[in-house]
Amino acid sequence: MADIRSVDEHLAEIVATVRPLDPIELPLSDAYGCVLTEDVTVPVALPSFDNSSMDGYAVRVADLEGADERYPAVLEVIGDAPAGGDTPAPTVGPGRAVRIMTGAPLPPGAEAVVPVEWTDGGTGGGPAESMAGHGPVIGGEVRVHRPVSPGQHVRRRGGDVAAGALALAAGTLLTPPRIGLLAAVGRASVPVRPRPRVAVISTGSELVQPGRPLAPGRIHDSNGFALAAAVREAGGEPYRVAAVVDDPVELRAVLTDQMGRADLIITTGGVSVGAYDVVKAALSGPEAPPGSVEFHRLAMQPGKPQGFGVLVGAAGERVPLLALPGNPVSAYVSFELFVRPAMRVLAGRLDRHRPRARAVLAAEAPLTSPKGKRQFLRGALAGTGYGAHVPDGPVGGSGRADGSGGATGDLPGGPVSAATEGLTVIPVGGAGSHLVAALARADCLIVVPEDVTEVAPGTGVEVVLLDRDH
After folding, report:
1. Helix (H) or strand (E) holding 224
2. pTM to 2 decimal places
Protein backbone atom coordinates (compact mmCIF):
# COMPACT_ATOMS: atom_id res chain seq x y z
CA MET A 1 0.00 0.00 0.00
CA ALA A 2 1.12 3.55 -0.66
CA ASP A 3 2.11 5.90 2.14
CA ILE A 4 -0.62 7.64 4.10
CA ARG A 5 -2.15 10.54 2.20
CA SER A 6 -4.42 13.37 3.32
CA VAL A 7 -8.14 13.66 2.76
CA ASP A 8 -7.59 16.64 0.50
CA GLU A 9 -5.00 14.84 -1.62
CA HIS A 10 -7.36 11.93 -2.21
CA LEU A 11 -10.26 14.26 -3.05
CA ALA A 12 -8.07 16.29 -5.40
CA GLU A 13 -7.15 13.18 -7.38
CA ILE A 14 -10.80 12.15 -7.67
CA VAL A 15 -12.12 15.48 -8.94
CA ALA A 16 -9.16 15.88 -11.30
CA THR A 17 -9.79 12.45 -12.84
CA VAL A 18 -13.57 12.35 -13.14
CA ARG A 19 -15.02 14.17 -16.14
CA PRO A 20 -18.56 15.52 -16.71
CA LEU A 21 -20.90 13.25 -18.63
CA ASP A 22 -21.71 14.06 -22.25
CA PRO A 23 -24.89 16.12 -22.71
CA ILE A 24 -28.12 14.49 -23.80
CA GLU A 25 -31.53 15.90 -24.74
CA LEU A 26 -34.14 15.13 -22.09
CA PRO A 27 -37.86 15.91 -21.96
CA LEU A 28 -38.83 18.30 -19.18
CA SER A 29 -40.49 15.48 -17.25
CA ASP A 30 -37.07 13.82 -16.85
CA ALA A 31 -34.83 16.89 -16.55
CA TYR A 32 -35.34 17.76 -12.87
CA GLY A 33 -32.03 17.87 -11.00
CA CYS A 34 -29.96 18.01 -14.19
CA VAL A 35 -27.67 20.82 -15.33
CA LEU A 36 -28.30 22.75 -18.54
CA THR A 37 -25.49 22.64 -21.09
CA GLU A 38 -26.78 25.44 -23.34
CA ASP A 39 -28.37 28.84 -22.81
CA VAL A 40 -32.15 28.91 -23.20
CA THR A 41 -33.62 32.12 -24.63
CA VAL A 42 -37.25 33.22 -24.70
CA PRO A 43 -38.81 32.77 -28.17
CA VAL A 44 -41.83 34.96 -27.41
CA ALA A 45 -42.58 37.45 -24.66
CA LEU A 46 -43.91 36.07 -21.40
CA PRO A 47 -46.78 36.67 -21.07
CA SER A 48 -47.35 36.90 -24.80
CA PHE A 49 -50.39 39.18 -24.49
CA ASP A 50 -51.90 41.66 -22.05
CA ASN A 51 -54.13 39.68 -19.69
CA SER A 52 -56.11 40.01 -16.51
CA SER A 53 -54.63 39.18 -13.11
CA MET A 54 -58.08 39.07 -11.48
CA ASP A 55 -61.60 37.80 -12.00
CA GLY A 56 -63.66 40.91 -12.64
CA TYR A 57 -64.60 43.37 -15.36
CA ALA A 58 -62.51 44.91 -18.12
CA VAL A 59 -63.27 48.64 -18.20
CA ARG A 60 -62.22 52.10 -19.37
CA VAL A 61 -60.66 54.26 -16.65
CA ALA A 62 -62.71 57.37 -17.45
CA ASP A 63 -66.00 55.54 -16.88
CA LEU A 64 -65.16 54.97 -13.17
CA GLU A 65 -63.95 58.41 -12.10
CA GLY A 66 -65.44 59.31 -8.74
CA ALA A 67 -67.20 55.95 -8.27
CA ASP A 68 -67.92 54.85 -4.70
CA GLU A 69 -70.46 52.71 -2.85
CA ARG A 70 -72.97 55.57 -2.55
CA TYR A 71 -72.64 56.57 -6.19
CA PRO A 72 -71.42 53.56 -8.13
CA ALA A 73 -70.62 53.70 -11.80
CA VAL A 74 -73.18 51.69 -13.76
CA LEU A 75 -71.80 49.91 -16.83
CA GLU A 76 -73.48 47.79 -19.48
CA VAL A 77 -72.03 44.24 -19.63
CA ILE A 78 -71.57 43.40 -23.32
CA GLY A 79 -69.87 40.00 -23.12
CA ASP A 80 -67.42 37.62 -21.51
CA ALA A 81 -63.65 37.08 -21.82
CA PRO A 82 -62.85 33.61 -20.41
CA ALA A 83 -59.26 32.34 -20.22
CA GLY A 84 -58.57 30.22 -23.29
CA GLY A 85 -61.74 31.28 -25.03
CA ASP A 86 -61.95 30.77 -28.79
CA THR A 87 -64.13 33.82 -29.51
CA PRO A 88 -62.51 37.28 -29.24
CA ALA A 89 -64.09 39.52 -26.64
CA PRO A 90 -66.03 42.55 -27.88
CA THR A 91 -64.50 46.01 -27.83
CA VAL A 92 -65.05 47.96 -24.62
CA GLY A 93 -66.56 51.33 -25.49
CA PRO A 94 -67.77 54.22 -23.28
CA GLY A 95 -70.12 53.08 -20.51
CA ARG A 96 -69.50 49.42 -21.21
CA ALA A 97 -67.64 46.50 -19.58
CA VAL A 98 -66.67 42.93 -20.37
CA ARG A 99 -66.74 40.26 -17.68
CA ILE A 100 -63.21 38.81 -17.61
CA MET A 101 -61.49 35.85 -15.96
CA THR A 102 -57.94 35.58 -14.63
CA GLY A 103 -55.51 35.00 -17.49
CA ALA A 104 -57.90 36.07 -20.24
CA PRO A 105 -56.67 38.56 -22.88
CA LEU A 106 -57.56 42.17 -22.20
CA PRO A 107 -60.37 43.11 -24.64
CA PRO A 108 -59.82 45.91 -27.17
CA GLY A 109 -60.62 49.33 -25.72
CA ALA A 110 -60.20 48.17 -22.09
CA GLU A 111 -57.58 49.97 -19.96
CA ALA A 112 -57.86 48.18 -16.62
CA VAL A 113 -59.63 45.39 -14.74
CA VAL A 114 -61.95 45.90 -11.78
CA PRO A 115 -61.94 42.94 -9.35
CA VAL A 116 -65.37 41.42 -8.86
CA GLU A 117 -65.15 42.33 -5.15
CA TRP A 118 -65.27 46.02 -6.15
CA THR A 119 -68.62 45.48 -7.89
CA ASP A 120 -72.08 44.10 -7.23
CA GLY A 121 -71.30 41.20 -9.60
CA GLY A 122 -74.30 42.17 -11.71
CA THR A 123 -76.77 41.34 -8.95
CA GLY A 124 -77.92 44.89 -8.21
CA GLY A 125 -76.98 44.47 -4.55
CA GLY A 126 -73.94 45.25 -2.41
CA PRO A 127 -70.31 44.22 -2.96
CA ALA A 128 -70.02 40.74 -4.43
CA GLU A 129 -67.68 38.02 -3.17
CA SER A 130 -67.65 36.02 -6.40
CA MET A 131 -69.15 35.87 -9.84
CA ALA A 132 -72.58 34.32 -9.98
CA GLY A 133 -73.49 31.61 -12.43
CA HIS A 134 -71.44 29.64 -14.94
CA GLY A 135 -70.99 30.32 -18.62
CA PRO A 136 -71.21 33.51 -20.69
CA VAL A 137 -73.20 36.53 -19.65
CA ILE A 138 -74.37 39.04 -22.24
CA GLY A 139 -76.48 42.01 -21.29
CA GLY A 140 -77.35 43.39 -17.92
CA GLU A 141 -75.51 45.91 -15.80
CA VAL A 142 -72.74 45.94 -13.23
CA ARG A 143 -72.31 48.54 -10.52
CA VAL A 144 -68.66 49.43 -9.77
CA HIS A 145 -67.87 50.92 -6.36
CA ARG A 146 -64.27 52.12 -6.90
CA PRO A 147 -62.23 53.91 -9.56
CA VAL A 148 -59.17 52.29 -11.19
CA SER A 149 -55.91 53.53 -12.64
CA PRO A 150 -54.59 52.67 -16.12
CA GLY A 151 -53.16 49.16 -16.28
CA GLN A 152 -54.45 48.18 -12.84
CA HIS A 153 -54.80 44.39 -12.45
CA VAL A 154 -53.38 43.87 -15.94
CA ARG A 155 -50.37 41.69 -16.68
CA ARG A 156 -48.59 43.42 -19.52
CA ARG A 157 -47.10 41.56 -22.48
CA GLY A 158 -43.46 40.83 -21.72
CA GLY A 159 -43.91 41.89 -18.09
CA ASP A 160 -42.29 38.64 -16.88
CA VAL A 161 -39.59 38.27 -19.51
CA ALA A 162 -39.13 39.87 -22.92
CA ALA A 163 -38.77 38.00 -26.20
CA GLY A 164 -35.14 37.18 -26.93
CA ALA A 165 -34.10 37.49 -23.28
CA LEU A 166 -32.04 34.83 -21.55
CA ALA A 167 -34.36 32.49 -19.65
CA LEU A 168 -31.74 30.19 -18.12
CA ALA A 169 -27.99 30.10 -18.63
CA ALA A 170 -25.88 27.06 -19.35
CA GLY A 171 -24.75 25.52 -16.08
CA THR A 172 -28.08 26.15 -14.33
CA LEU A 173 -29.40 23.39 -12.09
CA LEU A 174 -32.98 22.59 -13.06
CA THR A 175 -35.22 23.03 -10.03
CA PRO A 176 -39.04 22.78 -10.12
CA PRO A 177 -39.54 26.54 -10.71
CA ARG A 178 -36.96 26.48 -13.52
CA ILE A 179 -38.66 23.49 -15.10
CA GLY A 180 -41.85 25.55 -14.94
CA LEU A 181 -40.14 28.47 -16.68
CA LEU A 182 -38.90 26.21 -19.47
CA ALA A 183 -42.42 24.89 -19.97
CA ALA A 184 -43.84 28.44 -19.92
CA VAL A 185 -41.51 29.53 -22.74
CA GLY A 186 -42.50 26.48 -24.78
CA ARG A 187 -39.50 24.16 -24.38
CA ALA A 188 -40.51 20.49 -24.41
CA SER A 189 -36.94 19.22 -23.95
CA VAL A 190 -33.52 20.65 -23.10
CA PRO A 191 -29.85 19.59 -23.42
CA VAL A 192 -28.51 18.58 -20.00
CA ARG A 193 -25.87 16.48 -18.35
CA PRO A 194 -27.75 13.37 -17.21
CA ARG A 195 -27.98 12.12 -13.65
CA PRO A 196 -25.04 9.77 -13.07
CA ARG A 197 -25.83 6.06 -13.06
CA VAL A 198 -24.07 4.59 -10.06
CA ALA A 199 -23.57 0.88 -9.39
CA VAL A 200 -23.40 0.05 -5.66
CA ILE A 201 -21.65 -3.26 -4.89
CA SER A 202 -21.39 -4.62 -1.36
CA THR A 203 -18.79 -7.34 -0.79
CA GLY A 204 -18.44 -9.95 1.91
CA SER A 205 -19.44 -13.59 2.35
CA GLU A 206 -21.02 -12.66 5.66
CA LEU A 207 -23.66 -10.41 4.07
CA VAL A 208 -27.32 -11.45 3.88
CA GLN A 209 -30.16 -9.68 2.12
CA PRO A 210 -32.48 -7.87 4.61
CA GLY A 211 -35.61 -9.90 5.25
CA ARG A 212 -33.78 -13.22 5.21
CA PRO A 213 -32.81 -15.12 8.37
CA LEU A 214 -29.29 -14.77 9.71
CA ALA A 215 -27.08 -17.79 10.21
CA PRO A 216 -24.33 -17.63 12.85
CA GLY A 217 -21.65 -15.12 11.91
CA ARG A 218 -23.79 -13.41 9.26
CA ILE A 219 -25.07 -9.83 9.11
CA HIS A 220 -27.57 -8.00 6.94
CA ASP A 221 -26.25 -5.89 4.08
CA SER A 222 -26.94 -2.35 5.30
CA ASN A 223 -24.28 -0.61 3.21
CA GLY A 224 -25.85 -1.50 -0.12
CA PHE A 225 -29.17 0.05 0.80
CA ALA A 226 -27.74 3.08 2.61
CA LEU A 227 -25.38 3.94 -0.23
CA ALA A 228 -28.03 3.42 -2.90
CA ALA A 229 -30.23 5.89 -1.01
CA ALA A 230 -27.28 8.28 -0.69
CA VAL A 231 -26.73 8.09 -4.45
CA ARG A 232 -30.36 8.98 -5.07
CA GLU A 233 -30.23 11.85 -2.58
CA ALA A 234 -27.08 13.21 -4.24
CA GLY A 235 -28.85 13.32 -7.61
CA GLY A 236 -27.86 10.00 -9.16
CA GLU A 237 -29.58 6.87 -10.41
CA PRO A 238 -28.51 3.95 -8.18
CA TYR A 239 -28.15 0.34 -9.29
CA ARG A 240 -27.74 -1.79 -6.18
CA VAL A 241 -26.07 -5.14 -6.85
CA ALA A 242 -26.70 -8.11 -4.57
CA ALA A 243 -23.83 -8.63 -2.15
CA VAL A 244 -20.84 -10.41 -3.72
CA VAL A 245 -19.07 -13.15 -1.79
CA ASP A 246 -15.33 -13.02 -1.11
CA ASP A 247 -14.38 -14.45 -4.48
CA PRO A 248 -12.20 -12.29 -6.77
CA VAL A 249 -13.36 -14.12 -9.89
CA GLU A 250 -17.03 -13.47 -9.12
CA LEU A 251 -16.37 -9.83 -8.25
CA ARG A 252 -14.47 -9.31 -11.52
CA ALA A 253 -17.45 -10.70 -13.43
CA VAL A 254 -19.81 -8.33 -11.60
CA LEU A 255 -17.56 -5.34 -12.25
CA THR A 256 -17.32 -6.19 -15.95
CA ASP A 257 -21.10 -6.46 -16.16
CA GLN A 258 -21.65 -3.12 -14.40
CA MET A 259 -19.23 -1.23 -16.63
CA GLY A 260 -21.73 -1.53 -19.43
CA ARG A 261 -24.45 0.34 -17.55
CA ALA A 262 -22.79 2.54 -14.93
CA ASP A 263 -21.09 5.93 -15.06
CA LEU A 264 -19.56 5.31 -11.63
CA ILE A 265 -19.00 2.20 -9.51
CA ILE A 266 -18.90 2.08 -5.72
CA THR A 267 -17.71 -0.97 -3.81
CA THR A 268 -17.79 -1.39 -0.04
CA GLY A 269 -15.60 -3.72 1.97
CA GLY A 270 -12.51 -5.68 1.02
CA VAL A 271 -10.05 -2.76 0.94
CA SER A 272 -8.12 -3.18 4.20
CA VAL A 273 -5.24 -5.51 5.09
CA GLY A 274 -7.16 -8.73 5.74
CA ALA A 275 -6.53 -12.06 4.04
CA TYR A 276 -10.00 -11.98 2.42
CA ASP A 277 -10.02 -8.41 1.09
CA VAL A 278 -11.74 -9.30 -2.15
CA VAL A 279 -11.80 -5.85 -3.80
CA LYS A 280 -8.04 -5.46 -3.59
CA ALA A 281 -7.57 -9.02 -4.82
CA ALA A 282 -9.98 -8.62 -7.73
CA LEU A 283 -8.41 -5.36 -8.90
CA SER A 284 -4.81 -6.46 -8.60
CA GLY A 285 -2.64 -8.80 -10.66
CA PRO A 286 -2.75 -9.90 -14.30
CA GLU A 287 -6.40 -10.99 -14.16
CA ALA A 288 -7.67 -7.58 -13.03
CA PRO A 289 -10.03 -5.74 -15.40
CA PRO A 290 -8.37 -3.22 -17.72
CA GLY A 291 -7.65 0.08 -16.04
CA SER A 292 -5.92 1.09 -12.84
CA VAL A 293 -7.17 1.26 -9.25
CA GLU A 294 -4.85 2.22 -6.41
CA PHE A 295 -5.40 1.69 -2.71
CA HIS A 296 -4.32 4.12 -0.02
CA ARG A 297 -4.41 4.70 3.69
CA LEU A 298 -5.86 8.12 4.46
CA ALA A 299 -5.17 10.29 7.47
CA MET A 300 -8.80 10.19 8.57
CA GLN A 301 -11.08 8.41 11.00
CA PRO A 302 -13.31 6.64 10.18
CA GLY A 303 -12.52 5.57 6.61
CA LYS A 304 -8.76 5.01 6.60
CA PRO A 305 -8.59 2.43 3.76
CA GLN A 306 -9.72 3.79 0.39
CA GLY A 307 -9.34 2.88 -3.27
CA PHE A 308 -9.81 4.90 -6.42
CA GLY A 309 -9.17 4.46 -10.10
CA VAL A 310 -10.67 4.05 -13.54
CA LEU A 311 -11.74 0.78 -15.19
CA VAL A 312 -11.89 0.43 -18.97
CA GLY A 313 -14.82 -1.45 -20.50
CA ALA A 314 -14.95 -3.60 -23.62
CA ALA A 315 -16.19 -0.67 -25.71
CA GLY A 316 -13.49 1.63 -24.39
CA GLU A 317 -15.71 3.32 -21.83
CA ARG A 318 -13.83 4.67 -18.80
CA VAL A 319 -15.72 4.13 -15.56
CA PRO A 320 -14.41 5.63 -12.29
CA LEU A 321 -14.44 3.27 -9.30
CA LEU A 322 -14.33 4.25 -5.65
CA ALA A 323 -13.59 1.42 -3.24
CA LEU A 324 -14.94 2.29 0.22
CA PRO A 325 -14.41 0.57 3.57
CA GLY A 326 -16.95 -1.98 4.76
CA ASN A 327 -17.86 -0.63 8.18
CA PRO A 328 -21.18 1.25 7.84
CA VAL A 329 -20.07 4.58 9.30
CA SER A 330 -16.79 4.47 7.37
CA ALA A 331 -18.67 3.77 4.15
CA TYR A 332 -21.16 6.60 4.64
CA VAL A 333 -18.57 9.18 5.68
CA SER A 334 -16.46 8.16 2.69
CA PHE A 335 -19.48 8.61 0.44
CA GLU A 336 -20.02 12.14 1.69
CA LEU A 337 -16.36 13.10 1.34
CA PHE A 338 -15.48 11.43 -1.97
CA VAL A 339 -18.41 9.88 -3.84
CA ARG A 340 -20.76 12.86 -3.63
CA PRO A 341 -18.16 15.24 -5.17
CA ALA A 342 -17.38 12.67 -7.89
CA MET A 343 -21.07 12.37 -8.74
CA ARG A 344 -21.48 16.13 -8.85
CA VAL A 345 -18.53 16.44 -11.25
CA LEU A 346 -20.13 13.83 -13.52
CA ALA A 347 -23.40 15.76 -13.41
CA GLY A 348 -21.71 19.08 -14.18
CA ARG A 349 -22.70 20.60 -10.85
CA LEU A 350 -20.63 23.15 -8.96
CA ASP A 351 -22.16 22.49 -5.53
CA ARG A 352 -20.08 19.40 -4.85
CA HIS A 353 -20.03 19.30 -1.05
CA ARG A 354 -22.46 19.49 1.81
CA PRO A 355 -22.68 22.95 3.42
CA ARG A 356 -20.74 23.54 6.60
CA ALA A 357 -21.27 25.69 9.67
CA ARG A 358 -19.71 26.53 13.01
CA ALA A 359 -21.29 25.27 16.22
CA VAL A 360 -20.49 25.19 19.90
CA LEU A 361 -19.65 21.75 21.24
CA ALA A 362 -22.07 20.67 23.97
CA ALA A 363 -20.55 17.63 25.69
CA GLU A 364 -19.98 16.36 29.20
CA ALA A 365 -16.30 15.68 28.56
CA PRO A 366 -13.67 16.73 26.01
CA LEU A 367 -13.60 14.97 22.66
CA THR A 368 -10.36 13.19 21.89
CA SER A 369 -8.90 12.59 18.45
CA PRO A 370 -5.75 10.81 17.23
CA LYS A 371 -2.97 13.18 16.24
CA GLY A 372 -2.39 13.42 12.50
CA LYS A 373 -5.87 12.24 11.54
CA ARG A 374 -8.92 14.26 10.53
CA GLN A 375 -11.76 12.80 12.55
CA PHE A 376 -15.43 12.89 11.61
CA LEU A 377 -17.72 12.27 14.59
CA ARG A 378 -21.48 11.96 14.45
CA GLY A 379 -23.39 14.86 15.92
CA ALA A 380 -26.90 16.20 16.50
CA LEU A 381 -27.54 19.91 16.08
CA ALA A 382 -29.55 21.95 18.56
CA GLY A 383 -30.35 25.63 18.80
CA THR A 384 -32.21 28.37 17.01
CA GLY A 385 -30.55 28.07 13.62
CA TYR A 386 -27.94 26.42 11.51
CA GLY A 387 -25.30 29.10 12.06
CA ALA A 388 -23.40 30.69 9.21
CA HIS A 389 -22.79 28.57 6.14
CA VAL A 390 -19.48 28.80 4.34
CA PRO A 391 -18.48 28.57 0.67
CA ASP A 392 -18.34 25.21 -1.06
CA GLY A 393 -15.07 23.40 -0.48
CA PRO A 394 -13.31 20.33 0.91
CA VAL A 395 -14.75 19.53 4.29
CA GLY A 396 -12.55 20.08 7.29
CA GLY A 397 -9.65 21.41 5.26
CA SER A 398 -8.03 24.72 4.48
CA GLY A 399 -9.91 25.10 1.19
CA ARG A 400 -7.05 23.74 -0.94
CA ALA A 401 -5.50 20.36 -1.42
CA ASP A 402 -2.09 21.90 -0.74
CA GLY A 403 -3.24 23.34 2.59
CA SER A 404 -2.47 26.94 1.65
CA GLY A 405 -6.05 28.21 1.96
CA GLY A 406 -8.19 29.85 -0.72
CA ALA A 407 -9.69 28.28 -3.80
CA THR A 408 -7.90 26.42 -6.54
CA GLY A 409 -9.01 24.50 -9.61
CA ASP A 410 -11.65 21.89 -8.85
CA LEU A 411 -11.48 22.55 -5.12
CA PRO A 412 -13.34 25.81 -4.49
CA GLY A 413 -13.53 26.78 -0.89
CA GLY A 414 -12.94 29.39 1.77
CA PRO A 415 -12.53 29.85 5.49
CA VAL A 416 -15.19 28.51 7.80
CA SER A 417 -17.24 31.28 9.35
CA ALA A 418 -16.65 31.82 13.04
CA ALA A 419 -20.34 32.59 13.66
CA THR A 420 -21.82 30.19 16.20
CA GLU A 421 -24.76 32.14 17.60
CA GLY A 422 -27.71 29.93 18.44
CA LEU A 423 -26.17 26.67 17.24
CA THR A 424 -24.77 23.86 19.35
CA VAL A 425 -23.79 20.32 18.49
CA ILE A 426 -24.04 17.25 20.68
CA PRO A 427 -21.91 14.15 19.96
CA VAL A 428 -23.98 11.07 19.13
CA GLY A 429 -22.51 7.68 19.98
CA GLY A 430 -18.82 6.97 20.10
CA ALA A 431 -16.09 6.90 17.50
CA GLY A 432 -16.74 3.28 16.46
CA SER A 433 -17.20 2.84 12.72
CA HIS A 434 -19.82 0.09 13.21
CA LEU A 435 -22.36 2.15 15.18
CA VAL A 436 -25.25 2.27 12.69
CA ALA A 437 -27.86 3.41 15.23
CA ALA A 438 -25.73 6.41 16.22
CA LEU A 439 -25.29 7.36 12.57
CA ALA A 440 -29.06 7.20 12.05
CA ARG A 441 -29.57 9.72 14.89
CA ALA A 442 -26.98 12.16 13.56
CA ASP A 443 -27.72 15.11 11.31
CA CYS A 444 -24.15 16.38 11.02
CA LEU A 445 -20.51 15.37 11.21
CA ILE A 446 -18.23 17.06 13.74
CA VAL A 447 -14.84 17.69 12.11
CA VAL A 448 -11.73 17.53 14.26
CA PRO A 449 -8.63 18.68 12.31
CA GLU A 450 -5.43 16.65 12.07
CA ASP A 451 -3.48 18.85 14.48
CA VAL A 452 -6.14 18.79 17.23
CA THR A 453 -6.15 15.97 19.78
CA GLU A 454 -8.73 17.32 22.23
CA VAL A 455 -11.80 19.56 21.92
CA ALA A 456 -13.17 20.97 25.16
CA PRO A 457 -16.90 21.54 25.73
CA GLY A 458 -17.86 25.06 24.75
CA THR A 459 -15.35 25.16 21.90
CA GLY A 460 -16.43 26.20 18.41
CA VAL A 461 -16.20 23.33 15.93
CA GLU A 462 -16.83 22.85 12.24
CA VAL A 463 -19.82 20.68 11.31
CA VAL A 464 -20.90 19.18 8.01
CA LEU A 465 -24.68 19.47 7.60
CA LEU A 466 -25.94 16.07 6.46
CA ASP A 467 -29.57 17.10 6.08
CA ARG A 468 -28.85 19.98 3.71
CA ASP A 469 -27.74 19.90 0.10
CA HIS A 470 -26.77 23.55 -0.33
Report:
1. helix 222-233
2. 0.82
